Amino acid sequence: MSRARRIALVATTSLLASLTLAPLALAADGEGLYGRTDDKVVTYFSFAVIAFFAIFVTVMSLVQMRLENRKEKAREELERLRRP
């Protein structure tokens, strides 16, 4: 597939997706996918976003720590085997 054809296909797909989702973005009186949006909804959503990122960072740090420990154990094992 040529580069020009690929760009045209991506542009057409993006345009169709935008036109399909436009009614949701332009809903009247603050009603979107969720429904009527007020301060309470926005506040709870914001707290959920903060909680998600806090939990995500904590979990990924634990995963990294575990992987680092495995790497160190493997490195120590290789050093132990290399010594005559």
Notes on the structure:
This protein has helices spanning 3-25, 39-82. The protein has 84 residues and is mainly α. It folds into two domains: 1-35; 38-84.
Note the topology.
Blueprint: H1 3-25, H2 39-82
Structure at a glance:
The chain is 80% helix and 0% strand. The chain is mainly α.
Strand content: under 5%
Form type: flat
Q: Describe the sheet with the most strands.
A: none
Number of helices: 2
The sequence of SSEs as H and E is HH
- Radius of gyration in whole Å, from Cα? 25 Å
Spans of at least 5 consecutive residues whose pLDDT stays below 50 are none
What is the total domain count? Answer: 2
Q: Whole-number average pLDDT?
A: 88
Distance between the termini: 58 Å
Find the structural class using helix and strand composition: mainly alpha
Key words describing this protein structure:
84 residues, mainly alpha, 2 domains, 2 helices, flat
